[in-house]
Specification:
Growth Hormone, Chain: A, globular, cell membrane, MFS, MFS_trans_sf
């Protein structure tokens, strides 16, 4: 048992170090490009170009990696990423090319997709069904902590030193991740190896598996709707309400994300130590409660507008803390459900297809929310989005009610 727990913690630590480096890089990269170009349009095009290839290839990644040792894949990914950042470091000591930076960043993003899928499946393999939710809670705590402190440290390092210093720090971080992941004790389950078949056949088989499994398919659809209607909060809804409508300063606006992150951290700790509460059994209620809170927050934006704007800001911060908690109470059992119910031999394909649709629907959701908010306001859009989610949750859970009961 100790060996299993050690393996899980080594994997989580490796993911944490990689995420920390990636978070620092992603907060510094737009600042660096903006300093060079002084053009937001160029920055937007740059990020679209480095992200698009990774999104396009993501549904194919699962089929490519499922027949290989997942530990070896994450080791190769971390090592290659470390080398690529080091190459950038050496290059930018003497040269300054946006094209070269774009090319390397594009490759790093594709490698990170391989790491993401392989590490998720490895996480399922080294866990037991009983420990999945517990360690997903620990992972949520670690990752949300990093998402709060990473940008602060990244911007400080960038302001104090330079872009080249960031590159060498991130490169060393990925190399440290590679070194400690070497100690994970893992052997590929040879019983999962099937006879050789074509790539296209394996890909279609993965899609059919998702479609033919009622619970998995319905939860898959639910995640798609969530990414379309809810994932636009940070980019459109929150700034639309606080900055545009209530004229809260950008400095204070940052507290909304911090409050949400703190809620997620508290929830992650609770899930890790929880031994009694069964979140999966209360998933429908948690979904509805979360969307109801968001609806109420949108409604309060309308009601409190004629009062002191900082009254609503305080209410908003408190609600964000609660929403961060409940969202984590939803996300952790949901991902645990996928890891429990999707057979290991299909998980690579499943998570790669999930990643593809999730990545594709988020920008579409942002476009939709931005367009609608410009006409009816971010708060009304917020209410409409969450009413739709509540309806979808009812439909999904009613559709799988008999399957769950059995």
């Amino acid at each position: 048992m100790q060996s299993r727990e050690s393996n899980i913690k080594l994997l989580l630590l490796g993911r944490a170090i990689s995420l920390f480096g990636n978070t620092i890089y992603l907060i510094v990269l737009p600042l660096y490009i903006l300093n060079i170009t002084q053009n937001l349009k160029t920055t937007g095009i740059f990020f679209a170009l480095i992200n698009l290839p990774a999104i396009i290839v993501s549904p194919l990644i699962g089929t490519l990696i499922e027949k290989f040792n997942k530990k070896n894949i994450i080791l190769i990914c971390d090592f290659l990423t470390s080398i690529l950042y080091f190459i950038l470091f050496l290059y930018f000591k003497n040269f300054n090319s946006l094209i070269f930076l774009l090319l390397i960043s594009l490759i790093i993003n594709i490698i990170s997709k391989f790491f993401e899928i392989a590490s998720k499946v490895l996480f399922s393999e080294i866990n037991t069904p009983e420990t999945l939710e517990k360690y997903n809670g620990l992972q949520s705590f670690i990752e949300n902590t990093i998402m709060i402190i990473g940008p602060v440290i990244g911007t400080y390092l960038f302001a104090t030193f330079d872009f080249n210093f960031i590159l060498i720090v991130v490169s060393l971080g990925y190399f440290l991740s590679f070194l400690q992941e070497l100690f994970i004790k893992y052997e590929k389950n040879t019983s999962l190896v099937e006879e050789k078949s074509s790539f296209l056949k394996d890909f279609k088989e993965g899609l059919n598996y998702i479609r033919n499994n009622k619970i998995i398919f319905n939860f898959f659809i639910l995640v798609m709707f969530l990414n379309f209607f809810i994932a636009n909060n940070d980019e459109i809804i929150n700034p639309g309400i606080l900055i545009k409508k209530y004229e809260i300063s950008e400095k204070l606006f940052g507290f909304s994300a911090t409050s949400y992150g703190l809620g997620s951290i508290v929830a992650g700790i609770f899930i890790y130590y929880n031994k009694k509460f069964k979140f999966l059994k209360k998933l429908k209620l948690l979904f509805i409660l979360n969307s109801a809170l968001m609806c109420l927050l949108g409604l309060l934006s309308i009601i409190l507008f004629n009062y002191n704007h900082y009254i609503y800001f305080i209410v908003f911060i408190f609600f964000q803390f609660l929403i961060g908690m409940i969202t984590t109470f939803v996300n952790v059992p949901l991902i645990s459900s996928f890891q429990k119910n999707v057979e290991i031999r299909y998980q690579s394909r499943f998570f790669s297809v999930l990643s593809f649709f999730s990545s594709g629907l988020i920008p579409l959701g942002i476009l939709y929310a931005g367009y609608l908010s410009s006409y009816i306001g971010a708060d009304i859009t917020y209410i409409i989005d969450n009413i739709i989610i509540i309806i979808i949750v009812y439909l999904v859970f009613n559709n799988i009610k008999e399957t769950i009961a059995n």
